Amino acid sequence: MAMNAKVLIVEDEEPLTLLLRYNLESEGYDVEAVGRGDEAETRILEGTPDLVLLDWMLPGISGIELCRRIRSRPETNGLPVIMLTARGEETERIRGLATGADDYVVKPFSIPELMARVKALLRRIKPELIATILNAGDIELNRDTHRVRRAGREIHLGPTEFRLLEFLMQSPGRVFTREQLLDGVWGRDVYVDERTVDVHVGRLRKAINRGRKPDPIRTVRGAGYAFNEQFVTA
Ligand code: CA
């Protein structure tokens, strides 16, 4: 199963962070970790992850307060959050869910159980991140075989164009800035000029729009690019 969902770990216990990171990465997730609540808030606003594992007691802003803020912003209120709480704090657990966490686990928790919950939550909230095959209009993208077909005909894409199409197809209708595309497709640690994005979008369009097919990629002037949501249902 191909997965590249981005998980943000917010936890101030270093050994637990390392353990979570190791296990999530083994399952194919892209992982980022921060140890403070206020740092986490900045990270979430810079580029929304697909899921947050959020410790209850944190320096900076508490997990509960951060969860409340996540829920109060329109751009993050649908973000899946799993709360990591201390044992035996029943009222706290209830408060955690009331604040808007989707799920919680009690420390010390079993890693396989947490992994199962992460997957279940993503499957429920973002099924497109877990699916092996993404479909939109007459385009089919297979994450396992890295094959793309349009109206049944195979389309040959370079690795970057493939990742770009996959990234855009995951969130139809959502407009991504060039910076967000660089982060999501090329990765944070790679230095690439923003114009590189335009070059690769151009190549992707050329490959998938042969023979005057309608263009599923929308250029949003002054903003960036989106996968046209009308194309999905066309
Ligand atoms: Ca803590």
Task: Please explain how this structure is put together.
This protein is of the alpha/beta class. The protein folds into 2 domains: 6-129, Rossmann fold (3-Layer(aba) Sandwich); 133-233, Orthogonal Bundle (Arc Repressor Mutant, subunit A), CATH 1.10.10. The protein has helices at 14-26, 37-46, 63-72, 90-98, 111-125, 127-130, 159-170, 178-186, 195-208, 229-233, and strands at residues 6-10, 30-34, 51-55, 81-85, 103-106, 133-136, 139-142, 147-150, 153-155, 176-177, 217-220, 224-227. A 5-stranded parallel beta sheet has the order 2-1-3-4-5, with helices on both faces. Strands 6-7-8-9 form a 4-stranded antiparallel beta sheet. A 3-stranded antiparallel beta sheet has the order 10-12-11. Helix 2 packs parallel to helix 3 (63-72) and helix 7 (159-170) crosses helix 8 (178-186). It is elongated. It is 43% helix and 21% strand. Bound molecules: calcium ion. Calcium ion (CA) binds at residues 12-13, 55, 57-58.
Please outline the major beta sheet.
5 strands, parallel
Annotation, overall tally of beta strands: 12
CATH topology of the largest domain: Rossmann fold
Helix and strand content put the structural class at alpha/beta
What value does the average pLDDT take? Answer: 88
| Ends apart, CA distance between termini | 27 Å
How many alpha or pi helices? 10
Q: Give me the CATH architecture of the largest domain, please.
A: 3-Layer(aba) Sandwich
Bound molecules: calcium ion
Strand content: 15-25%
**Rg estimate, integer Å:** 19 Å
Helix content: 40-55%
CATH superfamily of the largest domain: Response regulator
Give start-end ranges of low-pLDDT stretches.
none
Order of helices and strands: EHEHEHEHEHHEEEEHEHHEEH
What is the name of the CATH class of the largest domain?
A: Alpha Beta
Oligomer description: single chain
Number of domains: 2
Outline type = elongated
**Spatial order of strands in the largest sheet:** 2-1-3-4-5
